[in-house]
From TrEMBL:
Stated family: Belongs to the ATP phosphoribosyltransferase family. Long subfamily.
Gene transcribed to yield this protein: hisG
Pathway participation: Amino-acid biosynthesis; L-histidine biosynthesis; L-histidine from 5-phospho-alpha-D-ribose 1-diphosphate: step 1/9
Gene Ontology MF terms: ATP binding; ATP phosphoribosyltransferase activity; magnesium ion binding
GO cellular component terms attached to this protein's record: cytoplasm
Domain of life of the native organism: Archaea
Enzyme class: transferase
Protein name per its UniProtKB record: ATP phosphoribosyltransferase
InterPro entries: ATP-PRT_HisG_long, ATP_PRibTrfase_cat, ATP_PRibTrfase_HisG, HisG_C, N-reg_PII-like_a/b, N-reg_PII/ATP_PRibTrfase_C
């Protein structure tokens, strides 16, 4: 099983971090190599540019890929499908034009020029609206093109909006919402090996925002504690040998932990321990 992952850029580190937490850590010393092993003998990674990853998966150089949905759409590959939204690298592709210019709606661009690193998605957007534009492909610094008469507007990525503001550009319309996805080639999407990787990554997402709460309580106070901790399918209760008390464990939403611990103390809980959860396989 080979997973294509970004070799650099803003998606590189969070992707390796996610694989690590999923129990698929990339072996140390693998930087800058084309291929690397993971701690699982059945899973290796192929490092590639974020934009090339859908193509690598479609062509069979890798079986699975991790990159932005924007890159997936731009690549036009047809034999790959999303398995999971990995919930990082969230951004929007937007149509933007100079703040105080003549372009206020997409229709104002009829007969004009739009610069972008995403020519396929951009052409699709304007075709769908039957607006005739000349799409110019650039490979970076797209925000500058309206200021040097190369283009009347751009289609580019935004997240905080800082880059657009700095360049005196205003959003005219939304083109696409994106985040990082795990996707597979269709001919392997339903195999056990792909399912194993997807399950491991999903378990990290499911564990985020959850805490594991452990405590001791006298048998007599146990019903009150169970009342406070409905948990995932109820808390786990264990007898503590040679004592009148029981140990209770439960998964609690991170945002409820503060209030829950206070309530537990009120109803007689002792030795309350709160820990992070690495993975949660449902
Ligand atoms: N500002 C941003 N906020 C959130 N996600 C972003 C942002 N910019 C880019 N992304 C996401 O990260 C992906 C890759 O962008 P990144 O800048 O890391 O690589 P790149 O510019 O293609 O790298 P290079 O061209 O140097 O190989 C984008 O396709 C998008 O999905
Ligand atoms: O809304 P913002 O938070 O300002 O983010 C948007 C910017 O982020 C990306 O560039 P990146 O930082 O990846 O640099 P790059 O052009 O070298 O890829 C994108 O191309 C925009 O320029
Ligand atoms: Mg970039």
């Amino acid at each position: 099983m080979k997973i294509a992952v970004p070799n650099k850029g803003r998606l590189h580190d969070p992707t390796l971090d996610l694989l690590d937490r999923a129990g698929l850590a990339v072996e140390a010393g693998s930087d800058r190599q084309l291929y690397a092993d993971t701690v699982d003998p059945d899973v290796s990674v192929l490092f590639a540019r974020a934009a090339d990853i859908p193509e690598y998966v479609a062509d069979g150089a890798a079986d699975l890929g991790i990159t932005g949905y924007d890159q997936h759409r731009e690549s036009r590959v047809e034999n790959v499908s999303d398995l999971l939204d990995l919930e990082y690298g969230s951004c929007r592709l937007v149509l933007a034009a100079p703040e105080d210019g003549e372009i206020e709606t997409p229709d104002d661009l009829d007969g004009r020029t739009v610069a972008t690193e995403f020519p396929t998605v951009t052409a699709g957007y304007f075709d769908g609206r039957e607006i005739d534009v000349d799409v110019v492909e650039v490979t970076g610094a797209t925000e500058l093109t309206p200021h040097v008469e190369m283009a009347d507007a751009i289609v580019d990525i935004t997240s905080t909006g800082t880059t657009l503001r700095m360049n005196h550009l205003a959003v005219v319309d939304e083109v696409l919402d994106s985040s990082v996805r795990l996707f597979a080639r269709d001919d392997v999407a339903e195999t056990r090996d792909v399912e194993r990787v997807a399950t491991a990554l999903r378990s990290v997402l499911d564990a985020s925002g959850k805490r594991y709460v452990m405590l001791n309580v006298d048998e007599s106070d146990r019903p009150a504690v169970e009342e406070v901790l409905p948990g995932m399918g109820g808390p786990t209760v264990m007898d503590v040998e040679g004592e009148e008390s029981v140990a209770v464990h439960a998964v609690v939403d991170e945002r409820d932990v503060f209030a829950t611990v206070a309530e537990l103390k009120d109803v007689g809980a002792r030795d309350v321990l709160v820990t992070e959860i690495e993975r949660l396989v449902r």
